[in-house]
């Protein structure tokens, strides 16, 4: 009788390699990344990495996709967890979820590192643009709902203000992970909240 081999969970193995590659990128940086580093982080052979991802760029793209989706999910969760009848609380939760909490914040550090590929790779550029657009959509919803319920008096169109808030987050976040001593996480949060107060007319944000 012919023996049937044990089924191999291809998805789980790919996910493990993506996770290991993310850790390796965070530790070594994108330019210094090697197949050997990913194999060591995953506890497998280099051959196993190449079996699932013959091209390193394909694996890095999966890391970027996973980082984007995980980050967006955490932001949506923060927004949804705030009281639905309190637009200021919901906007504050969204603002709090957008900045690195530490100079070595692993999520933001990984995203900024991966975004560097956008100039040379259409796939990475698409992920970066998608992240920005979806963050803008989150803020647009928060601002528009707040205005519609009388909680905010917006200084401009909700979508325009949302673009500004995301751009501010990105700029402040880059300085934080770059260890700019003049812009610590608490100072960046204070500045972002001050801007939000101005554009929403809510002094209690």
Descriptive overview:
It is a single chain. By secondary structure, the chain is mainly α. About 70% of the residues lie in helices and about 0% in strands. It is built from nine helices and no strands. It has helices at about 10-30, 35-40, 45-50, 55-80, 85-95, 105-115, 120-150, 160-175, 185-200.
Q: TL;DR?
A:
Residues 11-71 form the HTH tetR-type domain. With 205 residues, the chain is mainly α.
- What is the string of SSEs from the N terminus onward? HHHHHHHHH
Class by alpha and beta content: mainly alpha
Broad shape: elongated
The helical percent reads 55-70%
Report the end-to-end length measured between terminal Cα atoms. 71 Å
Number of helices: 9
> Could you give a short account of the major beta sheet?
none
The Cα radius of gyration reads: 20 Å
Question: What's the total number of strands?
Answer: 0
Q: Taking all residues together, what is the mean pLDDT?
A: 91
Low-confidence spans: pLDDT under 50, at least 5 residues? 1-7
User: Beta-strand percentage?
Assistant: under 5%
